[in-house]
Amino acid sequence: MIKRALITGGSGDIGAAICKTLANNNIHVIVHSNHNFDKAQTTVEAIQQQGGSAEAVTFDVCNAEQTAAELQKLSDSGLIQIVINNAGIHRDAPLAGMSQKNWHDVIDVSLHGFYNVTQPLLMPMMQSRWGRIINMSSVAGVMGNRGQTNYSAAKAALHGATKSLAQELASRKITVNAIAPGIIESSMTENSFDSTMIKNIVPMKRAGKPEEVADLATFLCSDKASYISGQIININGAMS
């Protein structure tokens, strides 16, 4: 039976690449978006044109009640055994000048969104005795980054959650890992890093591609990765 995967933030560059690569591996993908439903639908159409199986869904991961209701509808159509928590936002500023709203908004999406999406899906996944949970982090959560105290805090918190949840679910053959990308070609980074800056920061002298992150995520979702859990896996061109 075809497995079903929910990818939050699936309308973004990395999220869309993950959706397409999973679909190419005979997985039904649920492409989530909050504000970019048209882009999510475009990703679905691209997958379907390639013979894959996909659907689009929209809800606010920060809204626990709305999220639970939408997850129930999705679960009524079939078991969700793969969850990729990819939704995230930036509200960059030095902490000395950061508003409370910008602090809370970033943590709400990355950290509380992880709970709101993952927790309701755990019991059915545990009963099936197979599952994959991937939390998308960032090099900022590993190394820190100026102007991103809120984002770094949210992603570093996800690391702790990843390790703890991995231990809770290990006996049920469910793996939980985090992926921490470095500088990846995307609309989010194109205005932040020029080629000279990338060559100075990244030992491999280039930005990564969304497809490279997608290949890693797809491997972690496969049976070949069944003994990898509780890990924070960096994909950053040898940044350290």
CATH hierarchy: architecture: 3-Layer(aba) Sandwich
Low-confidence stretches: none
How much strand content do the residues show?
15-25%
CATH homologous superfamily title: NAD(P)-binding Rossmann-like Domain
Major β-sheet annotation:
7 strands, parallel
Order of helices and strands: EHEHEHEHEHHEHHE
Overall 3D form: globular
Write down the Rg.
17 Å
What is the total number of structural domains? 1
**Mean pLDDT across residues:** 97
Remind me, CATH topology? Rossmann fold
Strand order of the largest sheet: 3-2-1-4-5-6-7
Number of strands: 7
- Helical fraction: 40-55%
Q: Which CATH class applies here?
A: Alpha Beta
User: Which structural class matches the secondary elements?
Assistant: alpha/beta
Q: Give the CA-CA distance, first to last residue.
A: 41 Å
Describe this structure in words.
- This protein is of the alpha/beta class and 240 residues long.
- The protein has a single domain, classed as Rossmann fold (3-Layer(aba) Sandwich), CATH 3.40.50.720.
- The chain has eight helices and seven strands.
- It has a seven-stranded parallel sheet, with helices on both faces.
- Strand 2 (27-33), helix 2 and strand 3 form a beta-alpha-beta unit.
- Helix 1 (13-24) runs parallel beside helix 2, helix 3 runs parallel beside helix 4 (100-128) and helix 4 (100-128) runs parallel beside helix 6 (149-169).
- The model has no long low-confidence stretch (mean pLDDT 97).
Break the fold down into its secondary structure elements and pairings.
Elements: E1 3-7, H1 13-24, E2 27-33, H2 37-49, E3 54-58, H3 64-76, E4 82-85, H4 100-128, E5 131-136, H5 139-143, H6 149-169, E6 174-181, H7 195-201, H8 210-220, E7 232-235
Parallel strand pairs: 1-2, 1-4, 2-3, 4-5, 5-6, 6-7
Helix pairs in contact: 1-2, 1-8, 3-4, 4-6
